[in-house]
Amino acid sequence: MNHQHASNRRQNNTRSEGLLWSILRGQQLCGLKFRREHPIDPWIVDFACVAKSLVVEIDGGYHDGKIDDDLRRQRDLESRGWKVVRFTDQEVEQDAEAVARGIAAAIEMEYSFDPRLKTGSGARSIRARKPKPK
Fold first, then answer.
1. In what order do the strands lie in the sheet with 35-40?
2. How far apart (Å, rounded) are the C-alpha atoms in residues 112 and 129?
3. Using CA atoms, how far apart are residues 103 and 110, in angstroms rounded to an integer?
4. Are 32 and 8 spatial neighbours (Cβ–Cβ below 8 Å)?
5. Are 57 and 87 in contact (CB under 8 A)?
């Protein structure tokens, strides 16, 4: 799959993917950078933290008929050194914080969440100037 396909998927994410992305974006979760709809050829994964070789997948109802395909894909990713964690769309929508805590636990990190400033696209540069605790 190509990078254009991944870009198209980023623009058409599901409700649960959008909710989880609001937690993962901007290095809010444990200070980690996550990528959304990230290509790992031949696959496109929902979320990836390259630094931790972590893939986060959200399974919706449509996955019920794709269990064998999902398992084959997961085995392939794991054989290449990626850790794959899966959550259902219901888990994300019912308790997104618990899912975030599960992601941190999967990579054996203490959970921390540092919300982005609500200033739009300039949030990154403003956040960079925020004094760091000593």
1. 35-40, 43-49, 54-59, 83-88
2. 20
3. 10
4. no
5. yes
- Amino acid in the structure at residue 131: P
Longest CA span, the chain: 51
d(CA 31, CA 87): 21
Q: How far apart are CA 101 and CA 108, in angstroms?
A: 10
Give pLDDT tens digits for 101-124.
999 999 999 999 999 876 655 445
CB of 36 closer than 8 Å to CB of 22? no
Question: Quick one: average pLDDT of 118-134?
Answer: 54
| Closest of 62, 19, 55, 11 to residue 35, by C-alpha | 55
The token pair at 23 is: 């937690």
CATH topology of domain 3-129: Endonuclease; Chain A (3.40.960)
pTM: 0.78
